[in-house]
Amino acid sequence: MHPALVRRTIIGTACIAAAAAFACSRPTGNSGSVLTGDAASRVYVAPGEYDEFYSFMSGGFSGQVAVYGLPSGRLLKVVPVFSQNPENGYGYNEETKGMLQTTYGFIPWDDTHHTELSMTDGVPDGRWLFINGNNTPRVARIDLTRFETDEILQIPNAAGGHASPFTTPDTKYIVSATRFSVPVPNTDVPIETYKQNFRGTLSFIKADEPGKMDIAFQILMPGFNYDLGHSGKGPSEGWFFFTSYNSEQANTKLETNASQNDKDYIAAVNYALAEKCVADGKAKTMPADYYHNWMDESTRSARVERKTSVRMLDPGDCPGVVYYLPTPKSPHGVDVDPSGEYIVAGGKLASIIPVHSFTKLIKAIAARAFDGELSGIPILKYEAILAGEVQKPGLGPLHTEFDGKGNAYTSMFISSEVVKWKLGTWEVLDRIATYYSIGHLMIPGGDSKKPYGKYLVAMNKITKDRYLPTGPEMFQSAQLFDISGEKMKLLLDFPTIGEPHYAQALPASMLKDKQLKFFSLAKNMNPHVTRAESDGGITRQGRNVHVKMIAVRSHFGPDNLEGVMVGDTVYFHVTNIEQDWDILHGFAILGAENSELILNPGETRTMKWVPRTPGIYPFYCTDFCSALHQEMSGYVRVSAAGSNVQLKANTSPKAQRQISKVKGGVSASQR
Ligand code: K7E
Ligand code: CUA
């Protein structure tokens, strides 16, 4: 189909295809008829009970990660990553601002696409979750004992970090491939010199040590658009597969100009060989400019490091490091089955699903079954590497996951359905409609060596009539399917935060008992920590005023501050001195120009505040922490510039009474 037509007919076709199974437009909005009777009980998690899986969904253009319980679809947490988050002050408070520092300046937003769990021996291990920043290419690490972003690495020589952050089976590397080719290094050239000057890069990022992420090496590629990637596993471990489109190297009207060729390519990268070439000094060290930001464990503050070079490997200097696998047509997803033998591509405009064989790929390389080369990269013969083609799967195949029982499930964007097919025979076994325009799908562990199976989550782009309408902007949504039987069954729809491109999930049992309950106050090495109310106070350094303050049920100490003048910059360093699970406090002051602070127990966070006019400014706790939460407040007196009001910080008698109460032991039940 002509690509312009594809876009126009997405919804129309979706409805036609969907109509075969179920009605597409439902004037009443009642979907009960498509559900089997027991669907409700399959997703019902009784009050007080836990979900079976944690599911980590990309927040898409929210720049965050959202954590849902499955099968209930309940939203458990939003983990801020690449975007400021007013809900808890991430990216607003002084301790975390550094996480969002880039060579383009402080960036308060990005677009996340792929969540990826760390793995050991090809199986998710529950240590970390990685996620990519798509707009300003970055990768992030989230610690799964705290559900917090701990590390962000910027990717140089890249624009659009889309094929990212897929991991190797041992998490030695995560990758990031450039979606948009650009001059490398980036420089001012006419856009029409695309073919001469624009290049793609594939980055291999060392990822197995927290706080030490770094670009191990980059591979310089022809100027295509690199789209998605997956690591080999088992026999294919040591190889990485990246899809590319725009092998036409068009720089305008890509919609048609990048859809001319019948086949584009999967780049098969022998990263074990690349490592060797780099170790043998075959990569060139080139200047590069990028940031590495990470949370210091003891201060729980961002540390920021600007890096200046990268090792760039030209495939011409390392023969055998990259081969091109011809793949129809404008491929998007590339997925490797649990055995590591089959490499499945989702060609957005392809009428079949091609599956490459790793065994055949190795044989074809040995037999030099080449169909020419591109910029020194051999192109393997399609027929020589093909394991099979899934015929008539539907329209617009994008992504494939596996159930570990020999079946594959492919999302069909245009025909809005999930298609189940058999590895080896390539026959279509089942299909089920999604509402509407499915992008990724996810089976817990479904891209690993050992899928958990049981459920499949479809992540859909368009919601339309599935929910109560909320104006022109509808949220995206997910759908949960039961895949334990021969036929897929729809169980549940639930709305999502942002666009949940991709998700991964883990059994709850792997994480729930590892969760940190509070930070140790004794180990809090923030330079502005206040461990006891008697250590609080106010000091002046020129025009900067520092306030050290504790927060505890149900007061701040100190809570009356004087001597601040217009023209000062005030830093409120607030420490939550509670040592008890889930006892949070907040801090907000009248006229603050950033967000509140939310303080975990044992943690120090800092708000920067610049008062503009003399007067009295109340501050208060934003988290309803106790019966006397409304009493948890204080005042700052701001005087005119040059006034002679002395610096003063006091503690109210009421606060003193509270201290003795807390010392006497206030239990969580008195919140
Ligand atoms: Cu298919 Cu960005 Cu993985 Cu969305 S991408 S769907
Ligand atoms: Cu502390 Cu409310």
Features:
671 residues; mainly beta; eleven-stranded mixed sheet; six-stranded mixed sheet; 10% helix; disordered N terminus; binds sulfanyl-(tricuprio-$l^{4}-sulfanyl)copper; binds dinuclear copper ion
Provide the fold topology.
Layout: H1 3-21, H2 39-43, E1 53-58, E2 65-70, E3 74-79, E4 101-102, E5 105-106, E6 112-120, E7 123-133, E8 138-143, E9 148-154, E10 161-163, E11 173-178, E12 182-183, H3 194-197, E13 198-206, E14 214-222, E15 225-231, E16 239-245, H4 254-257, E17 264-270, H5 271-279, E18 284-295, E19 302-313, E20 322-327, E21 331-336, E22 342-347, E23 353-357, H6 358-366, E24 370-374, E25 377-380, H7 382-385, E26 386-390, E27 397-402, E28 407-412, E29 417-422, E30 428-433, E31 438-442, E32 455-460, E33 477-482, E34 489-495, E35 503-507, E36 537-541, E37 544-552, E38 555-557, E39 560-565, E40 569-576, E41 585-589, E42 597-599, E43 604-609, E44 615-620, E45 633-639, E46 648-650, H8 653-663
Parallel strand pairs: 14-19, 37-40, 39-45
Antiparallel strand pairs: 1-2, 1-35, 2-3, 4-5, 6-7, 7-8, 8-9, 9-18, 10-11, 11-13, 12-13, 13-14, 15-16, 16-17, 17-20, 18-19, 21-22, 22-23, 23-26, 24-25, 27-28, 28-29, 29-30, 31-32, 32-33, 33-34, 36-37, 37-38, 39-46, 40-43, 41-42, 41-44, 44-45
